[in-house]
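Whiteboard transcription, Tuesday session. T.W. wrote the structure tokens on the left side:
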């Protein structure tokens, strides 16, 4: 059983990083990461701002601290007021970027963040923008039997595909499709779930060969992170026997591959994603919990939290490490996944965990 004081400390430190690091700009947008070697933030990312809204709401729910809700609302208003392109009906990859693009996956993450904000605040604009974003995903990214990963702006023509997982369609897109499931629940319109069901069938067929799609060993770990997105996307259908089987086999496969690649390259988000998946899957009755594996994942996640007194870093979570050396990226998404994973683990061990997949960041 984890030391509850230690896990609470992790949450407090991670929360403090969100509030004091400057990773979120005054207008509400959130940088993709902080470069500790260069002492500067990367540009603001709409996807990461969507993740930030969900993470800050989670922190508010767990602690009751009003500042988390204030910053979550600021992130949401950045997305609805500054980022969303009303003329094009599109969510750009970056606001004001010279190369205009919109991503299917990012749009789903943003829509889910806005839906979480709407559920907490009741502000109609959050629901309205989430709905427009999800409708754009279903309408404009649709291909014959899949969904385009990227559209160019303003033309909305599909961008050229590449071998890199984020530049090609794949099973990982299923996590973004969760936005359709949540929108169906929020609006009482079951037809919104139809594109998720279509994407689910595609993802189940694609997942078997997804991890083999990258010959470079180091990039396999990046693809493993994306494969965890597929497993997360299954949570909305964990009651289906084929999805339950895919989740069970996928967890084993992902853990084996992560461990085999560990001496070369480890990503903190992969450990956190797998821990969350284990707990959700066990809580939903889909897969029995491998407690030994969960304990190890929780312990490793702790290792990635930055220490020291520099507010730009302290409490945040490093993206990863290569051959045992931390990489100089303090990452908002990694921090969000890690703080949720460890708080879920604490709740599980206390017998207080509730498996509500909609809370997945």
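and on the right, the sequence the group agreed on:
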């Amino acid at each position: 059983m984890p030391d509850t004081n230690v896990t609470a400390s992790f949450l407090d430190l991670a929360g403090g990083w969100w509030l004091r690091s400057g990773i979120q700009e005054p207008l509400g947008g959130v940088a993709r990461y902080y470069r500790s070697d260069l002492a500067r933030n990367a540009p603001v990312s709409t996807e990461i701002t969507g993740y930030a809204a969900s993470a800050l709401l989670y922190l508010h729910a767990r602690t009751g601290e009003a500042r988390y809700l204030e910053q979550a609302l600021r992130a949401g208003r950045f997305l609805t007021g500054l980022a969303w392109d009303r003329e094009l009906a599109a969510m750009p990859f970056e606001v004001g970027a010279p190369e205009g693009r919109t991503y299917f996956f990012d749009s789903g993450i943003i829509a889910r963040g806005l839906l979480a904000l709407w559920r907490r605040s009741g502000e109609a604009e959050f629901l309205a923008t989430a709905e427009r974003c999800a409708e754009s995903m279903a309408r404009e990214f649709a291909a014959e039997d899949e969904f385009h990963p990227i559209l160019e702006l303003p033309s909305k023509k599909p961008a050229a595909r590449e071998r890199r997982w984020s530049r090609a369609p794949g099973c990982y897109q299923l996590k973004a499709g969760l936005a359709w499931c949540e929108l169906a629940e929020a609006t009482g319109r079951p037809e919104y779930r139809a594109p998720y069901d279509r994407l689910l069938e595609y993802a189940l067929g694609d997942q078997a060969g997804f991890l083999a799609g990258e010959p470079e060993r180091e990039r396999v770990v990046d693809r493993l992170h994306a494969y965890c997105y597929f497993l997360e996307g299954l949570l909305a259908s964990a009651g289906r026997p084929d999805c339950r089987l895919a989740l069970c086999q996928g967890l084993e496969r992902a853990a084996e591959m992560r461990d085999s690649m560990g001496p070369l390259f480890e990503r903190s988000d992969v450990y956190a994603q797998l821990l969350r998946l284990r707990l959700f899957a066990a809580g939903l009755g889909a897969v029995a919990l491998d407690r030994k594996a969960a304990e190890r994942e929780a312990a490793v996640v702790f290792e990635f939290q930055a220490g020291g007194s520099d507010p730009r870093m302290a409490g945040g979570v490093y993206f990863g490490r290569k051959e045992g050396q931390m990489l100089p990226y303090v990452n908002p998404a990694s921090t969000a996944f890690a703080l949720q994973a460890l708080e879920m683990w604490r709740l599980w061990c206390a017998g207080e965990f509730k498996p509500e997949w909609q809370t997945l960041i």
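Someone added at the bottom: The chain is about 55% helix and 5% strand.
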